[in-house]
Q: What sequence folds into this?
């Protein structure tokens, strides 16, 4: 009896001591411990997650780290929460995106370039699109804009929606649109299927090209799908055009798989980027600075 009681008492006591130690640990915990050796990711079907998984392999110090699958909205929610409390967070970020305007953020240096470098966003069309709809093709081929343009639409859409934001951009850039549509015959309600991906960047470009084509007499529809399906849809001719491929790195594996089965019209934007991103208040600059999980 006596022993049992003592046993219970000492269990309780050591529990208290442990709890005390844990508290102490927490305040002196390293960034990596506070992060629980975790990087906050996005949708599993994204190119970003493929590259992030590669990075966890490429960098030995990250081999035992976790990459959480989530959604872009979920990841941005985690960022907002951490940022308000000035807590550490590492997440898969990219630009163009309003996150860089809303928060003070920095890319972690990536000397192995696992997450790529400055990238392009390209336009691809199905085989036969040019022959079937030469006028629409000319407009789609001419479409090219700057990261700031895309950001304007993405930011405006925060307070309205992508259709309104795209129409506004088209109105405000009528000179550019006039160049893209110069000498192009108007359509007669011909249907054009735009294949997009489920991110703000592509919501912006898809709605802008849709607005321009609609203005020019075509009937458009936008279908957002995972990058793998986007390439497949254009390759099989189920979709007509896409302004969504991030190249040459983010969507490289999908691109390589289908490249003989679609037409690549080249960049519609230069200067996109993705990587591991942290709030500027974090005292860390490079992926290589992260301590391995013990
Ligand atoms: N993104 C935005 C996408 C493409 C556009 C970088 C999150 C991705 O496939 O990862």
A:
């Amino acid at each position: 009896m006596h022993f049992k009681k003592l046993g219970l008492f000492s269990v309780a006591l050591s529990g208290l001591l442990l709890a005390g130690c844990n508290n102490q640990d927490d305040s002196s915990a390293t960034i990596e411990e506070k992060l629980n050796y975790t990087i906050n990711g996005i949708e599993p079907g994204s190119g970003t997650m493929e590259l992030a998984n590669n990075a966890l392999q490429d960098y030995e110090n990250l081999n035992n780290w976790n990459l959480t699958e989530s959604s872009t909205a979920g990841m941005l929610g985690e960022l907002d929460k951490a940022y308000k409390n000035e807590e550490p967070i590492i997440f898969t970020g990219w630009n163009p995106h309003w996150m860089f305007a809303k928060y003070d953020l920095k890319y972690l240096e990536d000397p192995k370039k696992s997450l790529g470098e400055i990238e392009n966003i390209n336009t691809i069309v199905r085989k036969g699109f040019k022959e079937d709809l030469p006028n629409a093709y000319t407009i789609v081929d001419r479409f090219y804009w700057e990261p700031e343009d895309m950001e304007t639409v993405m930011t405006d859409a925060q307070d309205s929606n992508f259709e309104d934001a795209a129409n506004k951009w088209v109105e405000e850039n009528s000179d550019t649109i006039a160049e893209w549509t110069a000498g192009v015959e108007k359509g007669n309600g011909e249907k054009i299927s735009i294949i997009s991906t489920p991110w703000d960047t592509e919501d912006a470009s898809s709605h802008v090209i849709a607005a321009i084509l609609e203005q020019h007499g075509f009937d458009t529809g936008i279908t957002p799908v995972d990058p793998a399906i986007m390439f497949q849809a254009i390759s099989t001719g189920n979709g007509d055009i896409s302004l969504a491929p991030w190249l040459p790195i983010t969507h490289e594996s999908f691109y390589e798989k289908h490249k003989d089965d679609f037409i690549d019209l080249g960049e519609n934007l230069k200067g996109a980027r993705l990587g591991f991103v942290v709030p500027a208040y974090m005292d860390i600059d490079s992926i290589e600075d992260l301590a391995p999980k013990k």
Summary: The pocket of 1,1-dimethyl-prolinium is lined by residues 42, 46-48, 94, 197, 199, 201-202, 227, 246, 250, 274 (CB under 6 Å). Strands lie at 38-40, 66-68, 91-95, 105-107, 119-126, 191-196, 219-224, 241-242, 246-247, 262-279. DSSP finds 13 helices and ten strands in the chain. The chain has two domains: 35-117+275-289, 119-272.
